[in-house]
């Protein structure tokens, strides 16, 4: 590949999104567009390829916002609804392109099969239902997306296993609470790292800000971006000022090149 990877932050919010429905929290009422966060997802684009990581309930809006006309595949981090609930909205891509490749842990594929049985059905398919081509991701097996390798990185979201992905000099991790040393080895040397930072208070299944910054300090990328952000972390503008050099809060519609 000759072009850099273009990373589009489609969503940078935690599971309920920001604003939270019905909330009067000042961050939920903020007029700064960077404080409006759809459910977490990125699109990775290069040379005509578009892959997304996760496909949450805001997927349709995210595809429309960025006028995406082609989708080459979906990489899933884990099965939680804020990462998977938009799967039905691959329909327009399916109608144009045929079965849409998905890349997921066996457990995640099984969960999707239960929740979206009509997408996976082999007989008596409902006309208009989309279909997927399932690719099972295993911890130590890099796989190909387009013409590059995706390296799965295993981490823990409390008791749930999650996958992050390294693509060349870019690494994306979300919903991480702990990660083993052997998996960190796969990340060292990455130039750009995206990692989740929920809020300042500790949480049972997510890095808080301090844990995320500690992890970034360990990996030492050239640049790092925080995502999967709760309104409780505070206003974008104020939090951004407090971050160390080279570390930024991601926000929806931010585009970076790696
Ligand atoms: Zn999540």
TrEMBL record:
Pfam families: Lactamase_B_2
Residue span, Metallo-beta-lactamase domain: 50-229
SUPFAM superfamilies per UniProt: Metallo-hydrolase/oxidoreductase
Domain of life: Bacteria
Protein name: Phosphoribosyl 1,2-cyclic phosphate phosphodiesterase
């Amino acid at each position: 590949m000759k072009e850099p990877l273009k990373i589009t932050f489609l969503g940078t919010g935690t599971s309920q999104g920001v604003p939270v429905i019905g909330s009067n929290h000042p961050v939920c009422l903020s007029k700064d567009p960077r404080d409006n966060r759809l459910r977490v997802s990125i699109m990775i684009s290069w040379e005509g390829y578009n892959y997304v990581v996760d496909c949450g309930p805001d997927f349709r809006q995210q595809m429309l916002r960025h006028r995406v006309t082609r989708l080459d595949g979906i990489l899933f981090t884990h099965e939680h609804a804020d990462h998977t609930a938009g799967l039905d909205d691959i329909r327009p891509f399916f109608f144009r392109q045929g079965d849409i490749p998905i890349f997921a842990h066996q457990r995640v594929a099984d969960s999707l099969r239960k929740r979206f049985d009509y997408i996976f059905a082999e007989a008596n398919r409902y006309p208009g239902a989309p279909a997927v081509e399932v690719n099972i991701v295993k911890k130590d097996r890099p796989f190909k997306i387009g013409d590059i390798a995706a390296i799965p990185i295993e981490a823990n979201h409390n008791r749930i296993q999650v996958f992050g992905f390294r693509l060349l000099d870019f690494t994306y991790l979300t919903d991480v609470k702990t990660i083993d040393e052997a998996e960190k080895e796969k990340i060292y040397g990455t130039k750009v790292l995206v990692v989740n930072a929920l809020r300042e208070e500790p949480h049972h299944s997510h890095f808080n800000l301090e844990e995320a910054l500690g992890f970034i300090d360990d990996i030492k990328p050239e640049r790092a971006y925080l995502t999967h952000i709760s309104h409780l972390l505070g206003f974008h503008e104020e939090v951004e000022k407090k971050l160390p050099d080279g570390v930024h809060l991601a926000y929806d519609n931010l585009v970076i090149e790696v």
